[in-house]
Design goal:
alpha/beta; 12% strand; 10 helices; 5 strands; 5-stranded parallel beta sheet; disordered N terminus; Rossmann fold
């Protein structure tokens, strides 16, 4: 299932866990989501670790800055305990370095407060789609950092592009060629992420034949 098809059709109501030390924020999100999803609440990271052992959640939505155990450290604790659940981080102060750190820690996406609930659910579906895919490209931490820095020169929603790159298994060489196109012509395949499904890396043998 591609991210776009996942957004169009929900197989079932999603089970989400919101981890945030602000209970009023939880009440607002729960009221806004209504019947779109089942949303549970954990006031801190330690409570979240306890809850995921008893319930099955599709996605954990977690605030970055919390006392005792912040969002980035909580992702680390989940990884140590082999709790394989997609994370979406939220924060009231989103900076480039934080977004990069979040992706490197293993977050599937990050949102800046305040955000539209539609955007939240879109990112939830993208995270689930990527998580369920068995063909996600494996990028090293160094490759992720390099790609992120290249993309942020031209795009605002770099996290969404990174997710799509991994989902459609775009090789690093292909990414670099597209960025070069962007520099030279102002256009490349990342301008419309729906086109990524049609991306085909250039075959070295075919390139050699063209020269002949």
């Amino acid at each position: 299932m591609t991210p776009s098809s996942a957004l169009k059709k929900l197989a079932r109501k999603r089970r989400l866990l919101l981890v945030d030390d602000n209970y009023d924020f939880f009440k607002m999100i729960k009221l806004g989501l209504g019947e779109q999803a089942d949303l549970d609440y954990a006031p801190d990271g330690f409570s979240a670790l306890h809850m995921v052992k008893k319930e099955n959640y599709d996605v954990v939505i977690c605030d970055v800055f919390m006392p005792y155990l912040d969002g980035l450290k909580l992702i680390g604790e989940f990884n140590k305990k082999h709790l394989n659940i997609p994370f979406i981080l939220v924060t009231g102060n989103l900076e480039d370095q934080l977004a990069s750190d979040a992706l490197h820690a293993g977050a599937y996406n990050i949102l800046e407060k305040p955000f539209e609930l539609k955007e939240l659910m879109e990112k939830v579906e993208l995270a689930i789609s990527l998580h369920e895919s068995e063909k996600v490209a494996s990028l090293s931490e160094q490759e992720k950092a390099h790609i992120y820095n290249m993309l942020k020169m031209f795009y605002y929603d770099v996290e969404k592009i990174m997710l799509s790159i991994q989902h459609f298994q775009i090789p690093v060489s292909g990414i670099q060629k597209e960025i070069e196109k962007k520099k030279l012509t102002g256009k490349c395949i990342f301008d419309d992420l729906h086109n990524l499904r049609y991306f085909k890396p250039e075959d070295p043998e075919e390139k050699g034949n063209k020269k002949d």
